[in-house]
Write a structure and sequence with these properties.
It is an enzyme of class 1 (oxidoreductase). The chain is built from nine helices and nine strands. The protein is α/β, with parallel strands linked by helices.
Length: about 220
């Protein structure tokens, strides 16, 4: 289909990101973050709370400018792609949301909407939206009240939070609480009736993410049925 753009490959772009990180921060800091991700991979292999065929819970959440966005209203327009992410402070979240932004025209061409959800406060969501020039809604799920219905909620390790602080990243400044709770990254595609068409997480290792191509393939498959 010639109208579709070249689809970014997250795994390829991650190689450059990791090279950049290795050049920017110390080996010791990288070891803290990588050990954290390795442990999360072992602890959270199957984090999803919903499966294909399930009815997705409806929700209302504020966007980056505190406007309430209702899932039901989006579903009235067609299928909805939902991604849960950790936060601005996570370079892998920035990378994957940037990749999803680049396939947004293709998602729209397939008649779907796309939203990203984290437990960050709206100000942090606005910062994320501006920094990445995101044209989709970035919603704030305080306390992970919605996320916990879709994916597993974990407590970000103190060691990782403290190491980030040493590098000038104040984890707690992005949130309205001190819980350190974040969702395991996941992607869901809902049909216009709210039924789950696609549900995937790469598990607790936040360095791994659902490829943009998988989202487009799933949407095209749903249209062919």
């Amino acid at each position: 289909m010639s109208k579709f753009h070249q689809t970014p490959v997250y795994e390829q772009e991650k190689i450059q990101l990791q090279a950049n990180l290795a050049a920017m921060i110390s080996k010791e800091s990288l070891e803290v973050f990588n050990e954290d991700a390795d442990q999360l991979a072992l602890d959270y292999v199957s984090p999803l709370k919903l499966s294909v065929g399930d009815q997705a819970p409806l929700f209302h959440l504020p966007n980056a400018v505190n406007k309430i966005i209702a899932l039901k209203d989006l579903l009235n327009e067609g299928p909805v792609v939902i991604t849960f992410y950790r936060g601005n402070w996570c370079p892998y979240c920035n990378l994957i949301l940037n990749a999803y932004q680049r396939i947004l025209p293709d998602i729209k061409a397939l008649g779907a909407n796309f939203i990203a959800i984290s437990s960050q406060n709206p100000d942090s969501s606005l910062d994320m939206q501006a920094k990445q020039a995101l044209e989709f809604e970035v919603l704030s799920d305080s306390g992970n009240q919605v996320a916990k219905l879709y994916t597993t909620i974990i407590q970000n390790a103190v060691e990782a939070v403290d190491e980030a602080q040493k590098l000038g990243v104040d984890f707690y400044s992005f949130y309205d609480d001190q819980s350190r709770e974040v969702p395991v990254p996941a992607v869901f595609i809902l049909d216009k009736n709210g039924k789950v068409l696609f549900a995937k997480s790469e598990g607790g290792d936040y360095r791994l993410r659902v490829e943009p191509s998988e989202i487009l393939t799933a949407l095209k498959l749903s249209l062919s049925k």
